[in-house]
Design goal:
This protein has 319 residues and is α/β, with parallel strands linked by helices. The protein is built from ten helices and 13 strands. The structure holds the ligand NCc1[nH]cc(CCC(=O)O)c1CC(=O)O.
Length: 319
Amino acid sequence: MTEKALRLGTRRSRLAMAQSGQVADAVSQVTGRPVELVEITTYGDVSREQLAQIGGTGVFVTALREALLKGEVDFAVHSLKDLPTGQPDELSLAAVPLREDPRDVIVARDALKFTDLPRGARIGTGSPRRMAQLNAYARAHGLDIETVAIRGNVDTRIRYVHDGELDAVVLAAAGLHRIGRIDEVTDFLSVDTVLPAPGQGALAIECTADNADLIAALGELDDPFTRAAVTAERSLLAALEAGCSAPVGALADLLADGQIVKEMRLRGVVGTTDGSRMVQLSTTGPVPETYDQAMALGRELAAEMLAQGAAGLMGERAQ
Ligand SMILES: NCc1[nH]cc(CCC(=O)O)c1CC(=O)O
């Protein structure tokens, strides 16, 4: 007897299809049921406006969530960094699988590294967070670069470099890895130079909160450390009252002594897009064992950053 297929709601972009396809295979393995992809168009996919102008939070996510709530699909996969920090009561974050490489990367012409870009080099990114940190690094190290606002999917962005319109673009390693273009990276940016977006490299698997059986099945794909880390990062973002398009970077990782994990460290940064003013801090604490402990780590760091003037650096985009 064949069981009814589970319906996975997905955006149509190459990245979304790639990550949904990978999750579909994993879910099929743990549930023993076939998984069918159901394509859904989101506002973020059709709009030509700059993402920051649309308002940022949730543009990629809303249509998928509506399909879940209408019962058109059984579960959905989001890039966790695109997910608004407030979790609706009717929906459950059933799994946060093991995170991919969280770093940002450069795809540049002539295999150039970020620090080898020539004077006046134009670097494309739609992200105020990336602009702020690249410009701050350039100021501190005497690089002369110009950050240029672009948007479009990953393939479109890389094309700007191949067409010679830009010297480089900044992208997430995870996205390139998932669509099979990681070989085109010319420089992996240290997180000491550019802290990634909260949740970058992680996926969120969501279903309706009333679907206990599916929540339990999807839960097998959950990685508790990734979940704790992204919970702390997103708690920081929420406590700064910033949206996903605000110039906020955050990364939680484990501090180990040999094989023994000692603590979790959470780093955060906020800055003006020109990189002239930055607040960058970190905190460490016991590895969170509960949701509340992970949330508390993020709130603590946010309070310290706000005390140093973080709110004043987020501009009118803060939301
Ligand atoms: N902003 C769009 C977006 N959302 C998720 C990823 C891929 C990386 C990830 O899963 O964090 C990307 C592309 C990018 O930033 O390069």
